[in-house]
Amino acid sequence: MDKSVIKSLIIEKQREVQEAEVTPRPLDLEPSANYVFIGLRRAGKTYLMYQHIQDLLKSGKRSPKDILCLNFEDERLSGIASSDLNTILDCYKELFDRKPLLFFDEIQNINGWEKFVRRLADSKYRVFVTGSNAKMLSKEIHTTLGGRFICKEVYPLSFREYLGFHKLTPAENWDVDGETRGRMVRLFGDYFQFGGFAESFFFKDKRDWLNSLYQKILLGDIVLRNGIRNENALRLMARKLAESVMQPMSLDRLKNLLDASHTPISRNTLSDYIRYFEDAYLIFGLPNYTAKFAEKETVQKRYFWDNGLLNLFLTDPSSRLLENLVALTLRKRYGDKLFHCRRPTSEVDFFIPSERFAVQASLTLSDPATKQRETKALLELANAFDVRRLELVTLDSEEEIRVDGRLVSIIPIWKWLLSDRS
Question: How many CB atoms neighbour CB 255 within 10 A?
Fold first, then answer.
């Protein structure tokens, strides 16, 4: 690597980080820990890193010269290998006579990166790493990092953060303030349809921006990274997964759908493709709590990490977007403690057994039969597993129902997203 290029990039990034306009997000970091920020591309990992740097600079504890920040997707660093990484430190030392804080963006592009950052952590450097591939959380990498890093998943903006971006902070009793409530509901419409990527907020044609992002994830993070040749099967699989968001889908069922569309694919290849989608943080799966062990892995309800990306595939989106947003919100809070629960006589969309908490998602309860079916499923689950909190999230209905001593809270989604429950 040309040292002069690396030195210019170090200086350039020090200036860029200071000048970046950052909308603060909740960020609670241990003062002496090393971190891996991992999540969907464009979810805000880099800006969280910038936010932390700016906080350090504002505190007066650090100066811009203390910062060594590089983005490994910069074309000027193309071709860099793990053997070149130490040259970066050499360049910094030639510029500044001090020990830097290290911030490495999208470093997963370099094979062997984990050994380099482990060595830095062992040498008492403070290191921050970002990446957009879940392989960074693999057992092999965890073993190499040796407990010296804390991993934080970064998500697109929550609805509360989205409101903050638009300078609307719900105050006490906001839900009875007609003006605030009206503006909030209007903002929710865009958030519901186009998701929480802050970068998209500045575009009039948000769908076009989202499609560009999806192509980048598909081609760069999935096709190119995994050497996939059957791109058509991959694209069709994404569409079938989007169309089936509300239903448990087995690998065999998904394979049959692809075969029927004249895109034959082996079951093993299909399983690999699902894993690639999950690694790229495009989708995540929820197993059935009551299923046998093998079925927990092969038959899952699968959701997208952002409503905007899901909506690219849908022509009649509302019901799917509602359930997907509830799934994503619960996944952020409960992680792998979240399940769906399908039993012989009923199905509940979301179940957190460790919290004795269940949530049903239904776009509308205008049909009395729908309301009865959804509440009955919650009550059956409550009786079977002693569930204490039962919630039914809808687009706009709100009431409380008490049956046999159990309370079912019916909540509009825009209000549910702002509650302490989610």
Answer: 18
